[in-house]
Write a structure and sequence with these properties.
alpha/beta, Chorismate Mutase Domain, subunit A, D-Maltodextrin-Binding Protein, domain 2, 4 domains, 6-stranded mixed β-sheet, binds prephenic acid
Length: 378
């Protein structure tokens, strides 16, 4: 075997060039396979349409090309098969982008997100769908829902919970009256930056951010900018947009926002909790098939009587099903009545889960399945 000093830069680079051309050929071979997959899916879809008249074909068409359960399986498989030296997550990110590019050849996906450009929700959309997705900014969470409901975008991405600040109640409320399904989840480690326009570090008179970002970095701001006005705006992307055009204004926002608005980071990682993470949900119009590592979310309205919540949760305990969340929101139909958002491991098509859902719907006023979807793979 050649010792380290026998290996020269020139021959290593020739090796890299040779490997690159193999990767390149394989990438295009894979892309051609995905194009074939698209033809097969289209053919199967048309055949099914001939037999099933009366189904909502525009909605079914949506899931024709994008297959969240398959993408999750591919990502899990490459992570499990990875032997290094690249980290499991690094390999998964590369495959995320490869699948994104292949899917764009089959059908470019349009994904609505809580904008404007540069928000953490946009970063979550890109993390989930890859860079080949067409991301469409919306001004409110409700607008993201209606953009997907009306079919103007294939999917939507909305924030649902932050590890420091808790639930995004607006998103939970939007689900109660929507027919949309949860098709996926994204977890994003939220690193907050203090951003200013180039050369604008000297005279900061106010700091703009979404109220959640102000709350998540409150201790850092108290220690470093105790006497500077803090202004809550509609999003961190909006804060960055303001900071780019108004002298004296700094913003708390993402790396993506810094790039988008040409801002520089005065400080990075200013969040008070070192593992500050936000969870987002992907919403669409169709149910997702089982991937093997799934979660299910439901919203239920229990009878107002003693032990109702206990009875509701008992079947999960009896079947040893792991509950991952339970939240309460006012029902908005009657004072002092509540709905429960319950999230658990498993897919609604699993017979055991189907039996639990059946049991729950028999003992509740309302039980709505918001969707079964693959657990976040990245
Ligand atoms: O397997 C499929 O159904 C494909 O379309 C291929 C592929 C991929 O690139 O692996 C692309 C898009 C889908 O969302 C899932 C996977």
């Amino acid at each position: 075997m050649a010792s380290d000093k026998d290996i020269d830069l020139g021959s290593l680079r020739r090796d890299i060039d040779r490997i690159d051309s193999q990767i390149h050929q394989l990438l295009n071979e894979r892309a051609r396979c995905a194009q074939q997959v698209a033809i097969v899916k289209q053919r199967e879809f048309e055949a099914a349409q001939q037999f099933e008249s009366g189904t909502d074909s525009s909605s079914a068409q949506q899931l024709l090309f994008y297959r969240p359960e398959r993408e999750a399986q591919v990502l899990e498989r490459v992570k499990a098969a990875n032997t290094g030296p690249l980290a499991d997550d690094t390999v998964a990110y590369i495959f995320r982008e490869i699948m994104s590019a292949c899917l764009a050849l089959e059908k470019p996906m349009e994904v609505a997100y809580l904008g404007p450009e540069g928000t953490y929700t946009q970063a979550a959309a890109i993390k989930h769908f890859g860079h080949a997705v067409i991301s469409v900014p919306m001004t409110t969470i409700d607008a993201v829902f209606s953009q997907v409901e009306s079919g103007q975008c294939h999917y939507g991405v909305v924030p649902v919970e932050n590890s420091t600040e808790g639930m995004v109640s607006h998103t939970l409320d939007a689900f109660v009256n929507s027919s949309l399904k949860i098709c996926g989840e994204v977890e994003l480690r939220v690193r907050l930056n203090l951003l200013v326009a180039q050369g604008g570090e000297a005279d900061i008179t106010r700091i703009c951010a979404h109220q959640q970002a102000l709350a998540q970095s409150r201790l850092w701001l108290d220690a470093n900018f105790p006497n500077i006005e803090r202004v809550a705006v509609s999003s961190n992307g909006e804060a960055a947009r303001i900071a780019a055009k108004e002298a004296g204004t700094a913003a708390i926002a993402s790396d993506l926002a810094a790039q988008k608005y040409g801002l520089m980071a005065l400080a990075s990682g200013i969040e008070d909790q070192p593992d500050n993470t936000t969870r987002f949900l992907v919403i669409g119009r169709e149910n997702v098939s089982a991937s093997g590592k799934d979660k299910t979310s439901i919203v239920v309205s229990a009878h107002n009587r003693p032990g109702a919540l206990f009875k509701l949760l008992e079947p999960f305990q009896q079947s040893n099903i792991m509950l991952t969340r339970i939240d309460t929101r006012p029902s908005r139909t009657e004072t002092w009545t509540y709905v429960f958002f319950i999230e658990f491991e498993g897919h609604q098509d699993d017979p055991e889960i189907a039996a639990i859902l059946d049991n729950i719907s028999q003992q509740t006023v309302m039980c709505k399945i918001l969707g079964s979807y693959p657990k976040a793979a990245l």
